[in-house]
Amino acid sequence: MSFLTRPFFRKYLLPGFVFQSIIIAGGYGTGRELVEYFLKFGPLGGLLGMLLVTTTIWAIILAVTFEFSRVFHAYDYRTFSLNLLGRFWFVFEILFLINMLLVLAVIGSAAGIIIRDNFGLPYLVGVLIMLSVIGFLTFEGSGTIAKFLSIWSFVLYAVYIIFFIVSFFKFGSQIEESLSRAVILPRWSISGFKYALYNIANIPGVFFCLNYLEKRKEAIWAGCLGSLIGIIPGLFFYLAILGHYPSILPQEIPAVFAIQRLRFPLLLILFQVVLFGTLIETGTGFIHAVNERIQTTLRERGKELPRWARPLIAFILLCCGLGISTFGLIPLIAKGYGGLSWGVFLVFILPLLGAGVLKIKNKSSCSSS
User: What domains, with CATH codes, occur in the chain?
Assistant: First the structure.
């Protein structure tokens, strides 16, 4: 796939595909997140929260973040937070690590559930498969990771579109009925805001591929396109499951529940494979961000992070996440992500849109003069 190496793809599309790959497992891979933060507030209320609130916030924050990263050559989260927060940079790292462990807990739990419930294998088998693939990808490094995340995103788009089309043909009348009720429950906008924020905490996983950006307009366009690339699969999924509202609300993994109702065995198998791949994508993105942060620190001291250490770090972090996963998937998503959203707002969003924008302006003025 030579187009993956073309400048246009690397500048305008790659950041979006990596962003989508990193947020999907914790954002809408299982469908539980879309139910919790959108559908719970009514079919139309959730749609408004997704399109008006989340998509807009993502576009703004991604554009400013990409430009800040470009201006300050910040391609790992430690360098980024040092330039943004100064001596308080460690607060950002603490928040990122908490978010990462929560997400690893979610994907670890989901991986075990998928293998156990659909293939009749022990819970631990799913976890070990995920760990093995993540270990391999982190061992190979940035180039292999970027290609894997991009290619799997195309596969994911195809399966989500098929899922939407089949759902519309089988449950089109129910989907239209759900939308025609125009149910909009209170706090839909706040929930869309919180969903946008906790996913923004995943941005450090995108930094490694931003070094292709050379101009401000490229960073802004990459951010806006990244928002659309990130939300579109979620929109397809959301519309597809409207035919099962409100019975889908309490389901632990709504994706499996909805596809089973289609009576389309091949699609169920494809979705399970894609969903499992999304868990690997997200885990890889987070762990690679940590590896890149460690690599940058070691290089400042004239050292290198050994390749064998990368999968070892992956193993340690995933084990920590699995420990947290014992609290259960639904409580982790409902409570863990909710609290994290406000931390991201205080530690990342406010500084970025305030001091961050001023620093971009001052840096650009100095460079032009």
Answer: 2-355 (1.20.1740.10)
